Amino acid sequence: MNSRRKFIATTAALAAYTGAVSAFPGIRSFALEGKLKLGLIGVKGMGWSNLSSFLKLPDVECTALCDVDARELDKRVKELEAKNIKVKTYGNYRDLLADKNVDAVIIGTPDHWHCLMMIEACAAGKDVYVEKPLGNSIVECNAMTEAAKKYNRIVQVGQWQRSQQHFKDAMAYVHSGKLGKIRLVKAWAYQGWMKSIPVKPDGPVPEGVNYDMWLGPAKKRPFNPNRFHFDFRWYWDYAGGLMTDWGVHMLDFALIGMKAHTPKSVVASGGKFAYPDDAAETPDTLTALYEFDGFNIQWEHATGINGGPYNRDHGVAFLGNNGTLVVNRGGWEVIPDGTKLEAVPLQKSVDRGLDMHTANFVAAVKARKPELLNAPVEAGAHIAIFSQMGNIAYRTGKKIYWNEKKGAFDDKAANKLLTASYNNSYKIPSV
Questions:
Q1: Nearest by Cα to 244 from 419, 391, 117, 130
Q2: Domains located in the chain, CATH noted
Q3: What is the DSSP string of 75-135?
Q4: How far is it, in rounded angstroms, from Cα 394 to Cα 375?
């Protein structure tokens, strides 16, 4: 994106932020009381991207950083110092949560830490911006939702496409009924840049890394570089593979478009078809089918392949009797079925979704109104649970049925996967 487009996008985010704040004349104003003070837990990857976005806003400052990897922490401190920003640093997130100079926290850690950190942050009186997927299990997601309510905190989940205008426009078109009866919704992520992870031996913990803290509630294992930093996503101990990494983004809009909630059944099939002998555990190829009354939602993912449906490497397609709407991060279009409908040419994205999303969070915090959030904890929990259902169907090898009243499946093997395994004396906090 060139500098002019960046300026326009940032200006749009600031305008949305200012407009949301000014709509509530009685709100708490950090402009008067001092800036919203942010602490970042997990300074690599999306944690850093999130903070960088927040720092574009005039009423925000960063006061603290926390990470278990001292190398990454030192790197980020220097980057902030170059911008004349001085922060406190912590190796233990609980020390950051105890810092009275922190109003809200960004949680950018591996998925298996989201639940504990979010709940403890809420209990400490902090508002929270937490990366997706919200939780690493169905039980965790439910506990996190209850914690936000109990402690009356503002919690935004990092599903930033919910703040992009073109996604909202696409959903409005789907809801208009012009597509006719929609019988199938496809959502997918084909990630050609994700290559095989070569098997590597266990080895010494890198200097400066608190590996026991990194593991936290996960099973005690020797250090292996394949499981650390970005590639933790491909191991069941810490995450759910592409099903939860990208599924929460794309399947979210499948549900929004269909105004759907809970599937009648879920079945999934796939495996390590591309790289059967590499180090990853989660499937590199997967298809999951969610059954609803009158339509199905289908999820597909594949690593090492770019050529997804409609020549897009990710997206959502609503297949109606009159035509198909396809949307992804680049924009949306309508493809007619014959002469039943007028085509809508590609409507390109016009804003920076992450900047709009962080601005939305700050506006909600200032207003103390969670209803302003574009991705509140309830929405994040629902789509994380929905995606986890696909993984559970895959891992059990069965067609599974969800009992909404019982909050459980009709299958014992599936119910054993309702919660993540907690180890090393860690427990999910009771809320």
A1: 391
A2: 3-162+354-376 (3.40.50.720), 164-349+382-415 (3.30.360.10)
A3: HHHHHHHTTT---EEESSHHHHHT-TT-SEEEE-S-GGGHHHHHHHHHHTT-EEEEPSSS-
A4: 27
Spatial contact of 318 and 324, defined as CB atoms under 8 Å apart: yes
- The first and second tokens of residue 58, run together, are 């005039």
DSSP state letter for 185:
E
Tell whether the model's pLDDT for residue 3 goes beyond 60.
no
Reported as half-sphere exposure (CB side, CA atoms, 13 A), residue 11 has a value of 7
Query: Which amino acid is present at 330?
Result: G
pTM above 0.85, yes or no: yes
Taking the C-alpha atoms of residue 286 and residue 284, their distance in angstroms, rounded to an integer, is 7
Residues 149-198 pLDDT 10s: 999 999 999 999 999 999 999 999 999 999 999 999 999 999 999 889 99
| Beta-ladder partners of 57 | none
Which residues, including other chains, have CB under 8 Å from residue 382's CB and lie 6 or more apart?
Answer: 141, 255, 261
